[in-house]
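#onboarding

Welcome to the new folks! Below is a worked example of what a typical request in this channel looks like: someone posts a single protein sequence, and someone else replies with the predicted structure as tokens. Don't worry about understanding the tokens yet, we'll cover that in week two.

Example request:
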Amino acid sequence: MQKATIFYKNFYKTIIFGFIFLNIFACTSGKKALKRGDFEKAVLLSIERLRKNNDHDKSLETLKQAYPLFIETQQDKLENLEKSPDMLNKWDDMVGIYKSVNYVADQIRICNPARNAIANPQRYDDELAHATKMASEAHYQAGMKFWENPTRENAKKAYYEFRKCENFTKNYRDEVTQLLIETKEKATLKIRIELQNPPNPLSDEKIRREILQELDNLNQNKEFIRFYTPNVITKTGENPQFSDQVLQFTYSEFFVGDAQYQNRTERRLDSTARETTVNNQKVLVYDKFSADVNIRSKRIYVRGTVDMLIKENLNGTTLHQNRFADENNWTSEWATYQGDARALNDQYRKLTQTKELPNPTRMQLFDIFCERNASKIRQGVRGFYQNL
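Example response:
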């Protein structure tokens, strides 16, 4: 019971200390923000402090000092923006300022001590509506200017401008929704996929799965790329023959050599100690033993290459090519021995218990090749298209 009482006392002390610390932190942070000229933060921190303590004099004083300075700096920024020749971005900045001032006014109005200290906080409702309309129009006109010369890059820029227009004013003009669809379609790079089948009867399911998974991921994460994977073709019903690029994968080589055998013999020596008595004295005697281990191995050399080629669909110009080459040895190793089995360590003992594996089929070796290279090919695709 006594331990429980001590625990709860310490617990409540911690809670009380935490509240005191947060209150002190809010107060001192507001003052620091005021000193370094971050008047908006000083105002908001003071209001937050006053919500917790209506009679906190230092926070009231900070609020009274910081708020007029905040309004003054915002008005200076607005005056400079009014003179700015940058008709595209100045309205964006003015909207941001008007929203910031209105937000501070709202925070003052819902906090009684702050509302008593700042009776009529400044608001820019009419100005905000006007600036929002002007920002929408500025981005609409910028988008139309890019759309006059509808290259893929200009279409992308036009799309971004129309999207900003919509972000400021939903349904600003009736045609903006359609323009967003048209510009995005024009800006989207469309790629047809050609996966050459490996020589019969081989199957490259592992590589195909990795490639198509990567392309579907890029379709989801890249805004202006459309790979015509089976999923996309099924979903859109589009004809991939009208693509901008062709992404080809071909198997230029898959070679399997003949089985090569090797044989080597290694002698293993070991000993154990035992205690015996000689001339009435206990001594250690070492019993030595040995074994000749005959190790046999079988190796089959495998070499394969996959070529990745990216080219323009219209004129066949090569944009990128990469060759993924791989060499590997399939091996089987086993052993027999003559002599004392106690001389064998774990490695040799395991070999003597292993039997010769049958030669793998060509399909099994091709599966190993696909397993070893699928991720490399996937990374190659990602490396080219990731930054487009």
